[in-house]
Specification:
This protein is α/β, with parallel strands linked by helices and about 290 residues long. It has 2 domains: about 1-210, 3-Layer(aba) Sandwich (Rossmann fold), CATH 3.40.50; about 215-280. Helix content is about 30%, strand content about 30%. The protein has 11 helices and 13 strands. The protein has helices at about 40-50, 70-75, 90-100, 110-115, 130-145, 160-175, 190, 215-220, 230-235, 255-260, 270-280, and strands at about 1-15, 15-25, 30-35, 55-60, 75-80, 150-155, 180-185, 200-205, 205-210, 220-225, 240-245, 245-255, 265. The strands form 3 sheets. A 6-stranded mixed sheet has the order 5-6-7-3-8-9, sandwiched between helices. Strands 11-12-10-13 form a 4-stranded antiparallel sheet. The chain has a 3-stranded antiparallel sheet with strand order 2-1-4, with helices on one face. Helix 4 packs antiparallel against helix 5 (about 130-145) and helix 5 packs parallel to helix 6 (about 160-175). The chain is globular.
């Protein structure tokens, strides 16, 4: 089933175009990373999906119009924009009491079990917790809600690498069940690559790349080229070239792996490498990618 469907989605702020005719389909049960530079339109797209901003074009989320049916939509959606939204004066136990009182799909026993894996004390005020602990608390509260769609906008911003890893491990092991859909925006591209089923690159309000991780791994290839093969490799029209410790690494889309292997060491690139290649000044949709 389809979770999100956008057709010709547009949004402008004065003369600034934030979303420029975006077409996007997200199936239920997928984990989609929306990745782009600052000002690319990522957060605007999320706000449209959550009914937080009006838009032009067609948009359905869980079969509903987010702007007109937001109250109904929010029964099946959870959203983490930033851990700072939790009231600093509140105690941890009070946050559990509050959600149990206002959200019919909040499972307090599950939240308690998730918090039992942390060092967070129920009597502590949120302002007394480290930022990593606040993130753990926020995630425990959200994962205890039986939602069909979870939207995460830069959820680990400002956290150290240990807490970031714990966050995504917990998301996969304690929350995701292949029926829930998760949308993630982040700048930490490398850290979510192993989590995603699909990836979307956004630049200047347009989709630059939209593919499954299986497509990504089969379509794109990097070659660490031997010096005497560099001219031959460049003749095959790479998408990008970079230097690492004096060696040339060329990135190809739809490359013939056997032929490229004759020129050097072949490997699947990281998402971050493809992101850098496609976000250049002259980036454009790559042949074979849905955009």
């Amino acid at each position: 089933m389809t979770c999100i469907e956008a057709r010709g989605l547009r949004k402008s702020f004065g003369s600034t175009v934030a979303l420029d005719g975006v077409d996007l389909t997200v199936d239920e049960g997928h984990i989609v990373g929306i990745i782009g530079p600052n000002g690319a339109g990522k957060t605007t797209a999320l706000k449209a999906m959550l009914g937080l901003t009006p838009y032009a074009g067609q948009l359905r989320v869980l079969g509903l119009d987010p702007w007109r049916d937001r109250d109904r939509l929010m029964r099946d959606v959870c959203f983490i924009a930033d851990v700072a939204v939790l009231p600093r004066w509140m105690r941890v136990a009070q946050s559990l009491d509050y959600l149990a009182g206002v959200h019919p799909r909040f499972d307090r026993h599950k939240a308690e079990a998730l918090l039992g894996k942390t060092a967070i004390k129920r009597a502590s005020r949120i302002r007394e917790l480290s930022k990593g602990m606040v993130t753990q608390l926020h995630l425990a509260l959200v994962m205890a809600i039986d939602a069909r769609l979870l939207v995460l906008d830069e959820p680990t911003l400002g956290l150290d690498i240990l807490y970031r890893k714990q966050f995504y491990d917990s998301l996969l092991n304690d929350y995701y069940d292949k029926s829930r859909t998760i949308i993630i925006t982040t700048h930490q591209v490398e850290e979510i690559q192993h989590v995603l089923t699909d990836v979307v690159f956004v630049n200047q309000g347009r989709l630059v790349l939209n593919c499954s991780m299986d497509q990504f791994e089969s379509q794109y290839v990097e070659v660490m080229v031997q010096a005497d093969s560099l001219l031959a490799a460049r003749a095959l029209n790479p998408l990008h070239e970079r230097q690492v410790f004096g060696r040339s690494i060329l990135l190809f889309g739809n490359g013939d792996r056997e032929k490229l292997a004759e020129l050097g060491e072949v490997r699947t690139p990281g998402l971050a490498d493809l992101f850098v290649a496609m976000m250049g000044e002259h980036s454009h949709p790559v042949a074979g990618a849905n955009s």
